[in-house]
Amino acid sequence: MKIAMIGTGYVGLVSGVCFSDFGHEVVCVDKDPRKIEMLQRGEVPIYEPGLQALLAKNVEAGRLSFTGDLAAAVDAADAVFIAVGTPARRGDGHADLTYVMAAAAEIGQALTGYAVVVTKSTVPVGTNQQVAEAIRAVRPEAEFDVASNPEFLREGAAIDDFMRPDRVVVGVQSDRAREVMAQIYRPLFLREFPIIYTDLESAEMTKYAANAFLAAKITFINEIAALCERVGANVKDVAKGMGLDGRIGNKFLHAGPGYGGSCFPKDTRALARIGQDHSVPMQITETVIKVNEEIKRRMIDRIVDLCGGSVNGKVVAVLGVTFKPNTDDMREAPALTIVPALVGGGAKVRVVDPQGRKEGETLLPGVKWMEDAYHAAQGAHALVILTEWNEFRALDLARIAKKMAVPAMADLRNIYAPRDAEKAGFTAYVSVGR
User: Fold this and answer.
1) What domains can be seen in the chain, in order of their start residue?
2) Which residues have a catalytic role annotated?
3) What is the pLDDT of residues 166-187, one digit of tens each?
4) Which residues, in sequence order, are CB contacts of 234 under 8 Å at separation 6+?
5) For residues 395-418, average pLDDT
6) Which of 416, 418, 417, 411 is nearest to 432 (CA)?
7) What is the pLDDT of residue 94?
């Protein structure tokens, strides 16, 4: 199949590269000439484990290319995927569809024959119908179908998620569109991965419902963690006891400083807004959003208390600022709330992150970037673990404690056992829900 992928952001680039590895001929399109030039050189603008090697393999095989010319990419394509950004709109929380509709209009002008126009971006219910209307507005005679194919990729594990998905959701309106989508996903069908066909609206809703549920699960265990601290329970034991129940499952039951990233914050806000617009308030989701922000602020208080009630003049070493490990993405990361509060309180903040510096230098002014945890800890009054990168999971705690002016740790990802921290020489140690 010939595929045009409009947008080379996280979703578009990963999807385009993986489709080409299925054997399809994929052309990725972007309006940013610098990004296209970078990709043509074999350089990847985002950090995702394994992506650069897979890209190089398929470029060399002649199945994958990059261009700024949308019309050339769409010409003779069997499917055109829209994978542009849908950021939260300022003021009302709605998903901003400006880029989606602009892409739809351009696709309409470029269509030369039948194609399925597939929305990969996360969009509110009803958007695919709007995409069809936008195409017909510029080309009433165009022969096409629209389809909804939401992504369920975890940053840091996106390639594995694409190649071995829990499920693929495809919303279609015609047998012809379904057949095209079936051919595109045939490699997964042959390996018996579930492919679910629905109407357009159900596919659109599935994406929001799934992300809102996962965000609620994270927020629930964080609330339970706060109660565990008051009653003397251990949230890790509680989560294990819950997670072994097959109806609940153990994923997303890890207490911490709140969720962040490119999806959960934006999608929960969008779902809440969709509910308001249709007079069906999403009360659970609205509460999840509110509680998640409170959890981040609670972590600030925890660090301040660890420093004796004030961080003014204190050196604080922060390990990890991306919203999760194995990504360079800092969108809505807890660090963007916590670190500025520490800097604003007068702390001298040192930061270590394997991939976060590129974005972090702009997003976190006033901090000092360090190469590793041991240099960051030298003379520090507190060590804060915000992101559970592998390199922070096996630190020589005794070595770090000796380097610090005050051996105090806020382990906000519950990486270490309190007794191990005490044994290593930490005189103060706090975690989440223990």
Assistant:
1) 2-198 (3.40.50.720), 199-434 (3.40.50.720)
2) 263
3) 999 999 999 999 999 999 999 9
4) 228, 433, 434
5) 97
6) 411
7) 80
Residues 6+ away with beta carbon under 8 Å from 242: 248, 250, 253
Residue found by looking up tokens 């379904």 in the block: 178
Amino acid code (one letter) for 420: D
pTM for this entry: 0.92
Which residues does 141 contact at the CB level (< 8 Å), separation at least 6? none
If you search the block for the tokens 């609206």, which residue do you land on?
201
d(CA 279, CA 388): 40
For 326-377, how does the pLDDT look when each residue is reduced to its tens digit (9 = 90+)?
A: 999 999 999 999 999 999 999 999 999 999 999 999 999 999 999 999 999 9
Residue-by-residue DSSP string for 244-310: TSTTT-STT---SS---SSSHHHHHHHHHHHHHHTT---HHHHHHHHHHHHHHHHHHHHHHHHTTS-
- Closest by CA to 15, choosing from 51, 61, 45, is 51
Q: What is the mean pLDDT of residues 143-151?
A: 97
Dihedral in degrees, nearest 10, Cα atoms 215, 217, 219, 223: 170
Query: Concatenated DSSP letters for 121-164?
Result: S---TTHHHHHHHHHHHH-TT--EEEEE----PPTTSHHHHHHS
Token pair in block for residue 184: 């595109």
Helix, strand, coil distribution of the chain in percent, nearest 5: 45, 15, 40
Q: What's the rounded Cα separation, in Å, for the pair 56 and 160?
A: 17
> CA 218 from chain center: how many Å?
14
* The two three-digit tokens of residue 333, written as one number: 């990361």
